[in-house]
Amino acid sequence: MNSEVTSPNTNPVGDFKNLGLAEPLLQAISDAGYTTPTPIQAKAIPLVLNGGDLLAGAQTGTGKTAGFTLPILHLLSQKPADNPAKGKPRCLMLTPTRELAAQIAESVVTYGKHLDLKSMVVFGGVSINPQINRLGRFLDVLVATPGRLLDLANQGKVDLSGIEILVLDEADRMLDMGFIHDIKKILARLPKKRQNLLFSATFADEIKRLADNLLDNPSFVEVARRNTASEMVEQTVHMVPQAHKRDLVAHLIKENDWQQVLIFTRTKHGANRLTEKLVKNDISAMAIHGNKSQGARTRALAGFKAGETRVLVATDIAARGLDIDQLPQVVNFELPNVPEDYVHRIGRTGRAGASGSAISLVDREELKYLKDIEKLIKRDISKVQVEGFTAPTVIEPEPPRLFRGQQPNGGQGQKKKQGQNKRRPQGQSNGKVPAQGQQRSFGDQPKPSKNSNGNRKSNNRQDSKPNETLSEAARHQAQPQQPIYAADLNIARRTRNNGGGNNSGRGNGGSNAGRGNSTRNSGNKGNSNGRIWVDADACPVVIKEILYRAAERAQVITTLVANKLMRTPPSPYLHSIQVEAGFDVADNRIVQELEAGDLVITADIPLASEVIENNAHALNPRGEFYSKENIQERLTMRNFMEELRASGVGTSGPNAFNTADRKAFAAQLDRFLAKQNT
Questions:
Q1: Model confidence over 545-594: pLDDT tens digits?
Q2: Nearest to 265 by CA among 278, 281, 284
Q3: Is residue 540 over pLDDT 50?
Q4: Which of 80, 298, 384, 397 has the fewest CB atoms within 10 Å around its CB?
Q5: Helix/strand/coil for 581
Q6: pLDDT value at position 288?
């Protein structure tokens, strides 16, 4: 591998004219207001023009998009297509997110406006029909996200056999989001003889393996130390309790008169709540995250760029690819639990030599994440206290959480303080089965055990309400992630007997944003030897079976279908489930959290494959365990319905999920639970 490493502050080429680009490209560069190439552009452009493969280490904000767009447009303009055809592009640029795809496509148009080249972009979240119509024309450059590109290729709407140049941009992000299987399928459709360009901000082992398989004797360019934050960004930490963060953000924006602020939150729900808080404080704000439609995300980003919206609140889906000129301020409302994501977040400011500021609001529960970040960037971040928002100087150990029915002082209970008269929230029990008569689920109901006094105990006991001293960060993010669903089956029974009711999916929580009175059980390793992750795309009968038999462990990991179920719940059981945005099968974060002994119930074959590779168990809706042997036969199937048909399980017709299927699944689940509890 030919290696060239350049400091981010040095530039061996003084002008774009010295790089060998065609005159129409130089004119477009001048029209865009650029005169001097950035280090990545100065190094990458000549190497791409030479026609060889390239592995480039460049973080966002370094100008890497122009670093591959300009030389590609030059090469395509100098040589006509061998066998031009409609829907047959010559260059394919793959990106992980819709926003990044749209911005790269915009760059192609900007730099290629004086060339006779045609380009288009395809991504999900919007109607596929207009994209199909545009693919019916001649095409030179196609910018795409992997999922939508595969959909179009499988329908025969795009021909990838004529690809001369392949670009994988943000390759590390694509792997993080679980696109490796899609990428492999796309590569199988490409001609073997082509030029490959791989750009990545980090170089984990997976990236190295991908580069080894994809690239042929590549040149290597790195323009900054790996996983380091820009020296042009002033980084500051404000220690503040989680409960005060929203007030502090509003205070900082008004006190400093910030006019353009990008704020990152960990969760979609958190982004929405913060946006509502800012708007109530007369600060114009909008949120973008995975649950927003593509149109809403595009409008929010456009308004932010145009200065119409003062604050843009985003989850990490926007941590890369946001291209905003001279963005002065980034705020981490919560620290990411992956240190590299911190670098990508603050990389939105201090770009291309400009200065910027990044402020992180850190609760004491996030100190571990802060240490990991400082270790990664090899520097301490200055801590600054804001008057009126000071965190406690002495951190007391957290008291242990009690489970419902447990009492301190050896089980004798605590005496109620004078004047204390807390009511039990509606729907909670004292660990006993409600006296509405015997309830039956699909399959046999496990009988509750007896305690020492002979009273029946519920097998579906949940954690008690989190201690009041715990911060929101602890409740929401501690260990390894907040579950999506938590079920209180006593409420479910009450709801069913009372004819349903309208709990809006919140159980006991009322206005508590879907958390109900249920807390995360995944950290309760004393009561269970493995968590159960449930893909909400599984048939509703399966979900009910899991929640009834293993409610303490069940965590549903697809939010879109889950939210749809909450709007029109097919059963009272789903009516009582608490919904919290978090894990999503699509971005593959579930795999990062798996532990040996966990069970994932899914019909998504690529996900099941990753589960097996991580020494966890994977079970399909029919009750068949995946194995390394049988999963290879199924890897060609992508979506849920294909797997259901292959398993003989369907939602209607001759393959409908029937009583025998349900009993088989229930029996398999019972065997798994029994084995785990021995």
A1: 665 565 555 554 444 444 444 444 434 434 333 333 334 444 445 556 66
A2: 278
A3: yes
A4: 397
A5: coil
A6: 87
pLDDT reported for residue 613: 73
Contact 507, 517 (CB under 8 A): yes
Tokens representing 469? 């001293």
Residues, the chain: 678
What the chain holds in terms of domains, given with CATH numbers, is 2-222 (3.40.50.300), 233-383 (3.40.50.300), 472-677 (no CATH)
Share of the chain above pLDDT 70, in %: 58
Q: Is the torsion defined by CA of 547, 551, 557, 563 positive or negative?
A: positive
3-state secondary structure string, 631-676? HHHHCCCCCHHHHHHHHCCECCHHHECCHHHHHHHHHHHHHHHHHH
- For 377-433, the DSSP string reads HTSPPEE-PPTT-PPPSS-PPPPPPPBTT--TTTTT--PPPTT--PPPPTT--SSS-
Residue at 181: amino acid letter: H
The more confident residue out of 612 and 470 is 612
**Max Cα–Cα distance, the chain, nearest Å:** 89
Question: Which residue blocks in 468-604 are alpha helix, DSSP H?
Answer: 472-477, 489-497, 540-550, 559-567, 572-575, 589-593
The DSSP code for 462 is P
CA dihedral 17, 22, 28, 31 (to 10 degrees): 40
Structure token pair of residue 540 = 């509703």
Residue 237: is its pLDDT beyond 70? yes
Angle made by CA atoms 373, 374, 379, in degrees to the nearest 5: 145
The model's pLDDT over 335-355, given as tens digits with 9 standing for 90+, comes to 988 888 888 788 778 765 667
Amino acid at 415: K
Cα-flanking dihedrals φ and ψ of residue 199, to 5°? -115, 135
Residue 427 has pLDDT above 50, yes or no: no
Q: Among residues 345, 262, 246, 274, which one has the least CA distance to residue 309?
A: 262
Q: CA-based angle 610:337:310, to the nearest 5?
A: 115
Distance CA 411, CA 98 (A): 55
Q: Nearest-5° angle of CA 158, CA 162, CA 167?
A: 85
Helix, strand, coil tally for the chain in percent (to 5): 35, 15, 50
- Region 324-336: mean pLDDT is 87
Q: Please give the model's pTM, rounded to 2 decimal places.
A: 0.48
Q: What is the pLDDT of residues 293-324, one digit of tens each?
A: 777 777 888 888 888 999 999 887 655 556 67
Which amino acid is residue 372, in one-letter code? D
Query: What amino acid occupies position 25?
Result: L
